[in-house]
Amino acid sequence: MSSKFQRQLYDSTDCMASALALNCCQLGCFIRDVPMSDYSVDNSDWMEHLRKAKPDIKLRDIVMPGTHDSGTYTFSKSKLFSAAGLTQNVDIYEQLSRGMRYLDVRVASSPSGETAIYHGCLEGGKFSEVLSEIKRFLDEHRGEFVILDVVQEYGRTFHEDKRIQMFQDFSTVFGDKLWKTNDRKALLESTLGSLDKQIVVVMNNRIYNFEVDGTKYTETYVDEYYGVFSAQRWMRSKWHNTRDTSQLLEWNMDEVQKYGDKRNAFLNNQFILTPGVGGVKDVLDLLVGQLRYVMML
Predict the structure, then answer these.
(1) What's the pLDDT score for residue 22?
(2) Residue-range domains of the chain with CATH
(3) How do 115-119 and 122-126 pair as beta strands?
(4) Distances (CA, A) of 70 to 77, 84, 114, 245, 292
């Protein structure tokens, strides 16, 4: 099936995924898995091209596009409410190939005992498969740098042994590609010409502060022994919680003006609209599939 025909098919059936009158179970069967349009620009090596053009540019001065709930492409479209939970329709490797350099991945323990991708009540694929896709991309594109932000999904259990295994997996999978020095200023001040690492991992603080066999897995311990760091310390990331596009843009611009020149931490601007129903018109639009929310990169 050609991508052109697929786009035509999805364009004619897309509203069924979100129209409550037609699809009360919110199945994701009609969520498109092809891009809105074809384009000829290859973004898989944009940092390498920038490195060659401006080797002295610092990491702190680069705008790095990213994706929200990056692992949700692993959700089965036949699951209840999958249309509401799918925020990405291409895999991690493809997201990186299209130019994304920040990944937001939500995890927890699955009933099978695996560390899995989650978004609310929806369970996706294995986190280990996400790591494999990232490694594959980094192996093929040596000049690229990625920020991996790992979050324990709200309200979900993340077993302590699986947390420890995840810490170990970061080093095992990424090896010498991983930035392990707990010095965010040093990383931010690194020029592309001098940067010899390809990925830094930061984690939500919910993952820290537990004890196993007498070892306390505090932020300091995990930072020192595993080379992964607190997202709250390394990055300012504010969820604006609005469904108004103008307000979202204004608040993000305020963030840039207030914190853009503070060079001691990453600034993550979240251009993400939060779903909500405001009145009768919204209810009617929701029933027919016209009330839609788009994540802006």
Answers:
(1) 61
(2) 1-39 (no CATH), 41-234 (3.20.20.190), 239-297 (no CATH)
(3) antiparallel
(4) 16, 14, 18, 21, 19
